Amino acid sequence: MFSKTTLFAALLATAVSVVARPQDVWDPTITSPTAGVRWLPGDTHNITWDTSNAPADISEGSQVVLAKGGVLDSANPLAQGFDLRAGFVPVTIPVDTIAGDDYAIVLFGDSGNLSPTFTIL
Asked: Domain Yeast cell wall synthesis Kre9/Knh1-like N-terminal, which positions (predicted)?
């Protein structure tokens, strides 16, 4: 039988190994939106990415952010806290989005991935 000290030490070692376990850097390719797509403010679309090479340990600090002309609107993420292994997340384009043909989606997890540019009418 284990003593309380031995059991506590074993539990602590297990907890530390789980917390200290490094996560793999993963840079999935965004598959939607594609170049030349045209979206309207207020519409909902699925942002999708390739999960075929997803590592076992990836970040759960996920976000999708809209960028215009290379400038991120990180104060207003379109989605956050979703499972990166899912391969998609639905987002709604804000109704007050200014028209332009220089938009991109940035997918954050443990790295930032940029979609091709597309248009919001």
From this structure: 32-120
